[in-house]
Amino acid sequence: MTLSTRNVMVGLAAGLAVLALWASGMGTVIHVPGDYPTIQQGIDAAAGGDTVLVGDGVYTGPENKNLDFGGKALRVTSELGPAATAIDCENDGRGFYFHTGEDSLSVVEGFTIRNGYVGTLGGGIYCLGASPSIVRTVIIGCQSDAGGAIACESASPLIEGSTMSENDGGLNGGGALFCWQGSFPIVSNSILWGNMPDEIAVVNGNPAVRYSDVAGGRAGVGNIACDPLFVNVLAGDYSLSYDSPCLDSGDPLAGVPDGGGDRLDMGAFEHLIPYNDLALSFTNTPDSVAQGSRVSWDVSFTNPLSIPVTVDVWFDVSSQIRCAIIMEYRDVTVPPQTTHNRTLSLPVPNAAPLGQYTIHGRVGVMDMIDGGVYDAENFIVEILEGHALSYVESSSGLGYPQLEAGRTELEMGDVDGDGHPDIVSIGDHGSPYINTNEHGIMVWFGDGTGTWSVYQNGNFGYGGVALGDVNNDGLMDVGYAMHHNYSGNDFGDQLIEVALGDGTGQNWQPWDDGLATNGETWGMFGTDFADVDNDGDLDLVSNSFGAGSGVHVYLNQGDGTWVQSFGFLEGNSTDDIVFGDVNGDGNADFAAAHEYGTVYLGDGAGNYVLADGNLPPPGWVGRFGPDLGDVNNDGGDDLSYCDGSGGVHVWLWAGDTTWTDVSAGLPAGGPYETTQLFDMDVDGNVDVLAFGEGLVTVWRGDGVGGWVQATQFTLPNPGYFAAFRVGVDADHNGYPDIVLVDEEGSWINRTNHLRFFKEASSPQSLSVRPTYPRGGEVFIIGSVRFIDWVSGVPGQEALAVKLELSTDGPGGPWTTIADGLPNNGRYQWTVAGNQSLDCYIQYTVVAGQDTATAVTAMPFTIASAD
């Protein structure tokens, strides 16, 4: 057997422990071969409480196998551990036979037992009516008809820190362990791997297995099922390689030999850390996360030296049924006497099996053959079933329409500043407002429970709508584009307009000089706001509705005038347009439902270029219902849309006008007419929603482009799409809601119905969860960006929200962005702060004496415009 230096050191540590026992005067130490030539002779000479200390070497012959304690409470241990001390049974007999009522005070420790063979039970060790302790023992290459390594008959031994591999349990199985006749052994911190025909076979009994690596998986706390990555099985070296998942994966409460790191390894060999000064640690580790969500935690490693150290950091995840490398980052230079901090976040697949997983971390040098780990750390997280989304209609006060069906657009926001989101729409055709034939700006004020009351102002044609504060006075303003206009005064007299609000939602002042001045003669519609030129003012984009008026971007001059920076006429379209940041450069891009193309990238100055790249052709009216959202959590937005066959599609931006199709799992055809991208279950991953022909479906995203249907509900026939908006939590239960307009009734008499659906769960405690920024975004200093959140509020207490910024990591220090905000889920922020790649926002919600706090899961970047 090959003896490595590190394994001798571990064995020496164990030997020193035995020396300490000698020094205490507890029993006599009998040396083999010094006092007696064979192990059995040493056992026979010992009395209860004695230690038989076996020197290094390979022991063979009849008195070095089938070893029998004879019922004595002895410790039979090697001097230098299992790498140096072997019992070779020479394929005739077993290592130990316990059958005289031995209990846990009868201890076997620190041997390799190999080449055992019996035709009955227990090729390595057989416990019959006895329950000894088997500690730090390697059992390899042993055979029997039941229990190749260990067999238990009416026995419950303790098997601690041991390795069993390449054993054969024959016809009755249990290559590592066989239990019958009421056997209840305890297996801890051990490796059962590569045995035949299975690892554990139970006829009668129930072994308790914990913090162990078992091939094929085994229920129990801390168990994994990963290749242990032994150093060299062919050479008989069953110690752990530097990247073994068994490193630092044992019982966190167990003692660790000197030099073994800060947590016990699984198996018989503790991996010695060659360089202990660089310490890896985890904080803010979750106890559990939901399927389809994300697991996030903080990592730090400290260099206490006076010189810089360059290291690699890598991670794997293991469970009872699978193991995989999940992340690595290399060549991290840590300055002298400095701590490197980083927040990590990983997607949990929608179909991840429920149960416990271990996240392992290593810091060291990945390419070093031996001894490449300076420190290791891990934590256990439980995967739970994801939140079961369900929606109930809450449309009281929305009423039923009198006018005809047709397209419209909705937005949600806190128009009157009372902390409760409201619903906003404009126009006549397809309008769900019923009290008059005049239909200008319509606001349905929410009360925070899903009940509504309406107020209307103006008289102009139907179209699209956007909400934001265009003059930076802290009050909600509205932008809108009309298919046609009726008004003869300044309010509603042009196809694209902006109106300032006074904080009531009932009075509006036109602020729109220069809009709709570039050939838009008819049919403008979809509208959105973003700070296109990063100057601190919201700008506007609008798309036409099948009328050849094209797409237009107007820059806000800050004084009520607007200047076009980009636009074109002609081409067909299907209304919708939305701002986002596709390439993650901090500049506003947009996606339009237009036949000339969909995705346009902005340069931060108001200029745009088409970036459809390898996307399928948009079709003669453009893609239906496009939306933008960060599906794979890389900081840039991705694209969803419906095609002409009612199928739902999602494409990830891959850079350089290249897109990756991740539509597998979504319907290739169906009734759908529009999409939305939003994290509806607030698990850290964007979900996709689609609506059409009376059907609304939510597919849960897993953060890498995988989808599974989460919920679905239907509307009265025919239920054609007229408007669809998600993402605002109007009833304060901590989950975003859905508002829509659908066409109902027979063909000649169809009318639009405005309906609101709130997520059905009830909050049990005060909570706040960030929804934007999500992490990875770039914010330009001086530009306008939105900070979004949802908050679960038991009851309807008056709340105040505080937002703080850290540019130095998730631990602060924190600088106040805003305080005393209404809990309406959105704050318009003019970006301030130092340039940093490590920015976080802390959200604090206060209700009376109750407080809830959350921090963005991953860092975003604050950069200058230069």
UniProtKB/TrEMBL annotation:
InterPro entries: FG-GAP, Integrin_alpha_N, Pectin_lyas_fold, Pectin_lyase_fold/virulence. SUPFAM superfamilies: Integrin alpha N-terminal domain, Pectin lyase-like. It holds the Pfam family FG-GAP_3. It comes from the Bacteria. The keyword Transferase does not apply. Keywords: Signal. PANTHER family: SENSOR KINASE-RELATED (PTHR46580). This is Right handed beta helix domain-containing protein. It comes from candidate division TA06 bacterium DG_24.
